[in-house]
Write a structure and sequence with these properties.
By secondary structure, the chain is mainly α. The protein has helices at residues 30-48, 61-74, 82-91, 105-115, and strands at 9-11, 14-16, 49-51, 101-103. The radius of gyration is 15 Å and the shape is globular.
Length: 120
């Protein structure tokens, strides 16, 4: 590998780099976490998920939180607790496992690569 430059992953027109950062999950009262989550939850939904009418179950809790974690890391945002995220999503009418959502954008690619080490 000496003298060779590693190329970033390319997926659907996005250049992906695997961030090397620590993840900090906020811990606190539910209302405290929900306030922060509600603020960026709308951005997360706009940028990282889309409706997929062909989906029977949509995204489950694990997938939504993993996608959210990737979105936060890529956007240099603190990661709220799962409870805070799901409270904010419920306020938007999104119920894990009972929705028609699909992943999209750079956060989707990051989540897929992070959860499938064989692809890296």
């Amino acid at each position: 590998m000496t003298g060779q430059r590693r190329r970033p992953w390319i997926l659907s027109g996005y250049t992906l780099v695997k961030p090397v950062v620590a993840v900090t999950v906020r811990v606190g009262s539910e209302s405290e976490g929900a306030d922060v989550s509600t603020t960026c939850c709308g951005e997360f939904v706009r940028e990282a998920v889309s409706r997929d009418s062909g989906s029977d179950h949509g995204l489950c809790r694990e997938q939504l939180f993993g996608l959210y974690t990737s979105w936060c890391l890529l956007n240099h945002r603190p990661v709220d607790s799962p409870d805070a995220l799901f409270t904010a999503l419920r306020q938007k009418g999104i119920i894990p496992g009972h929705n028609t959502l699909a992943m999209k954008g750079p956060a989707a690619a990051d989540y897929i690569l992070a959860s499938s080490p064989a692809l890296t």
